[in-house]
Amino acid sequence: MNFTNDANRSDPRSLNSGPDFWGLLDKKWQMCSKGKMQSPINIDPSSLLYDPNLSAIHVDKSTVASELINTGQMPRVRLFNTNRWPSVNISGGPLNPYRYRMQRMDIHFSSTTDFGSEHSVDSKKFPMEIQIIAFNSDLYRNFSTAVVSPHGIAALSLLVQIGKNTNEELLKITIATASVPFKRKRVELMELKPWKMLPHKADYVTYEGSMTSPGCHETVTWIIINHPIFITAEDLDTWSVLQQTTTQEPEPRYIAPNFRTLQDPHGRIVRTNIRHHFKEHDAECKKRLNDTWYRSNPNRTETIRSKTIFHRRRHHAHHHADFELL
């Protein structure tokens, strides 16, 4: 089953069937329609709660072996957790005091540059979202147990923006898509470095939510990094050839777009470690489009002064920009 409804392909922004009926298709999926902590959600800057106790997120700098799979619903990178290859642990921030072992990466995207991500920031969508999914290896022996258990899953969300160069590790995966055009196709990805996909910044927002595919288990701590990684428009277009079917059909059914619709936050608190203050701009900073006070929940007194910067400052080598989402 695909995330979208073919009848609505003309307007993929309003996926008003398909995912909305998951809870009716299988009793095990009832949480998809009845849950009050569902994901994804829109990150509203005006309701963020600054939490000074949120430490930086740590991702092990391990090189791993993995495979890219076309599941028919999404492209997925699955890690080989074997003795030969070290596991990748994620810890810190809202995950404390536990360690979470990286299991896979789920990739959501569209065939256009306007939308494709599952989460949005201030109602803005992004062309792609990479979700690094990890399970609590301190409490549970495996992913299947953790996903239905409290504090079971951590999901690290990387929002992807169009840029002049593609993130080096994302490029490895992008090139591999040529080998998995159809459902159930898979190809090995050797020496992948997941930590290199993360921006060189520690800012993030976090909330308690769910898996974004059936059965929508509400066991996920979401961490959305406040800086995008980049992909070129040409490389993004490479992903659009992935299909839902096992073989070529006269009328191809493409995976894209494969995002779930935004869910009602139901008053959930979204915390952040972002506490920016006005600073002198670098010599290269030419333009600031918006300086905004981000205020917490009206019932609280915390405020966050943060800057939304939509210009880009050049970095050396493969670094694209100091570009903030919030």
From TrEMBL:
Database matches in InterPro entries: CA_dom, CA_dom_sf, Carbonic_anhydrase_a-class
SMART domains reported in the protein's UniProt record: Carb_anhydrase
Signal peptide, first to last residue: none
Gene3D superfamilies according to UniProt: Alpha carbonic anhydrase
Domain Alpha-carbonic anhydrase: 5-274
Gene Ontology MF terms: carbonate dehydratase activity; zinc ion binding
A Pfam family annotated for this UniProt entry: Carb_anhydrase
Cited PROSITE patterns: ALPHA_CA_2
Listed GO biological process terms: one-carbon metabolic process
Superkingdom of the source species: Eukaryota
Family the entry assigns: Belongs to the alpha-carbonic anhydrase family.
Protein known as: Putative carbonic anhydrase-like protein 1 (inferred by orthology to a C. elegans protein)
